[in-house]
Amino acid sequence: MKKILLMSLLFSFLLVGVGCSNKKKELTIEEQIARNELAEKIMSKNRCAQIRDIVLEKYFGKDCKLQKSHFTDLSKNYDYGEFQDEGIVDGVIDGKNGTFNFTINVSVPITSPDDWELESLFVKDKDKKHYVYAIVQGKWKDPKEIERTISSISSEESDATSSSTSENNVYVSDDDLHSIENALQMEWDISNASSAVGAESSNVFKVKKESVNGNEVTVSYSLRSTYGGQKKFVDLHGVVKKNSDGSWSVVNLGY
Fold first, then answer.
1. Is 238 helix (H, G, I), strand (E, B) or coil?
2. pTM of the model as a whole
């Protein structure tokens, strides 16, 4: 859940309105296979690690030392890829020398991988557990603002937990929110694949519970879709329900 909160924080700064765009001319099966193979090579763990190291050296100095990292392939198709790397590094950032936890998000255009972009960099003092530096889409963000946002998220989650104790309403845990995110993601994947004007890819994030009515839950979430290689963002309110086996299904995507 910590990773979900961090991603929620990241994209709370980034959301913009969704525009309309015509979908690219569809590729042949052979072209899709070739592009997918290219995406696999470009988004390999080793190549992404090279990009991560460039970012670390830029912000923590050339003498920085990586203690450990955890790579996550967030998305990948024949047009666009994105990865996240979380870890611990020794170095100097913003004039401060020490050991830091970092989270890096990078987007990589498959057709021009050298034009990768640093979507975000979050840095936390390993011992004091406070954010000391942040970059969001190339711009510095006040670490105090990040702390306030996290505090607000924690408060909202606490209130949501308290309000979910009603006997007639389902309880929504952190694990449930993760399952709801997966259910929404799957539904968008199906919707895009079955529509002639669907997005090339869509990514669901920042899922939050809004209200509960029996076994149905209204959630707010953000959606990043790619049309013609361009990323579009929108905030949505959807409805999901908890099934008897504990799984979640989508009642309404909210679009």
1. strand
2. 0.52
Predicted local distance difference test score (pLDDT) of residue 115: 92
Q: Where are the beta strands (DSSP E) in 94-200?
A: 96-109, 117-125, 131-136, 139-140
Q: What is the CATH number of the domain that holds 220?
A: 3.10.450
**Residue 156 in domain:** no
Residue with tokens 């004007």: 197
Quick check: is 27 in a domain? Answer: yes
- Return the pLDDT at 220: 92
Counting the structural domains of the chain, the total is: 2
User: How much of the chain, in percent, has pLDDT values that exceed 90?
Assistant: 35
Tell me the three state secondary structure of residue 138.
coil
Examine residue 218 and state whether it is found in any structural domain, yes or no.
Answer: yes
pLDDT by residue (tens digit) across 184-241?
998 888 887 777 667 888 889 999 999 998 889 999 999 988 887 788 888 889 999 9
Q: Rounded to an integer, what distance in angstroms lies between the CA atom of residue 208 and that of residue 59?
A: 32
Same domain, 95 and 125: yes
Note down the domain range covering 84.
Answer: 2-146
* CB-CB contact of 80 with 107 (8 Å): yes
Answer yes or no: do 20 and 142 share one domain.
Answer: yes
Question: For the CA atoms of 242, 243, 248, 251, what is the dihedral angle to 10 degrees?
Answer: -80
Nearest to 238 by CA among 196, 174, 188: 188
CA 190 to each of CA 31, 59, 74, 89, 253: distance values in angstroms, whole numbers, following the listed order: 22, 40, 18, 40, 12
